[in-house]
Amino acid sequence: MSDIEPYNEDDDDEPEWASDPKQMGFLDHLEELRWSIIKPLAIFLTAFITSMVFIVEVKDLLLAPLKANYSHLTEAEQMRVFGGLVTYNITGVFMAMLLIGVIIGLMVASPFIVYYVGKFLAPALTKREKKILIPGSFAVLFLFLLGCSFGYYILLPRTITAVIWFNQLLGFQMLWTTSNYFSFLTFTILGLGIAFQMPLAIIVLVQIGVVTPDQLRQYRRYIVLSIVVLAAILTPPEPVTQIALAGPLWILYEVAIVVSAFLKKKHDSKAQRLDDD
Asked: Which of 267, 5, 270 has its CA nearest to residue 130?
């Protein structure tokens, strides 16, 4: 017998088929999927358009990690050391504006994407899965914003500082294109937002039985080595920046082991009590 928890049939806001997902027809599934895509997409487009309306202010905000390295210099010195962002083709400015809009749109729409995906999947979830849906969605949002904030406030400024130092060491004048800078910004901020989902992915793998906490501890050295290698690839060849990325990821891995072990122990204890009854 299925342990799917039915919706409250007395709730007039729910359609008839909501009490049993098996009654939902193919077209109903498509309609639900359509709205699950349209609503977060509408929020993304709204944020995108808003960022275009306030493009100058948003651009200054995203350039803050770059300008922070020259706050102690006069404008003339800044232009001598760093020529500023440039465009080499007619459409370069539009590509920069597009990347700015994508960054803002995804950051604003991300919690709504998580919510509507969870809402679409909810009728097919078991009681146990539904209990972790809402806290899991908040955890996804929290870790995503934590990763984006870490990238913007910590990793990005350190990376830019390291790049500038190496250019000055070799006597190179820096003329960065707008598309290069904002592409790097997008990759760093959104990439870290996704990378910070690692503990949740590990917990899910433990919950479905793919790995165990003991195996995570056993292979810790290989995971940590992989994190260090990944940090070395994604950052300049400068140890401070590499440690700034590898350190938090290692901490998140250790947190994932502790949380997954706690949840597994709790689940095993509950299963043991049911068997005893």
From this structure: 5
Total count of residues recorded for the chain: 277
When the pLDDT of each residue in the chain is averaged and rounded to a whole number, the result is 77
What pLDDT score does 241 carry?
A: 74
How far, in Å, CA of 29 to CA of 21, rounded?
A: 9
What pTM does this model have?
0.70
- The distance in angstroms from the start CA to the end CA of the chain is 19
CB-neighbour burial class of residue 99 (10 A; exposed 0-12, middle 13-18, buried 19+): buried
pLDDT tens, residue by residue, 74-133: 666 666 555 567 777 788 888 888 888 888 888 888 778 877 877 777 666 666 666 666
Measured CA to CA, the distance from residue 73 to residue 71 in angstroms comes to 6
Question: What are the boundaries of each domain within the chain?
Answer: 22-194, 197-271
Residues with Cβ within 8 Å of 55's Cβ and at least 6 positions away in sequence, in order, are: 97, 100
DSSP sequence for 5-47 = PPP-TT-TTS-GGGG-GGG--HHHHHHHHHHHHHHHHHHHHHH
> What is the token pair recorded at 225?
């080595």
Say which residues have a Cβ less than 8 Å from residue 146's Cβ, sequence separation at least 6. Answer: 196
Bridge partners (DSSP) of residue 126 are 4
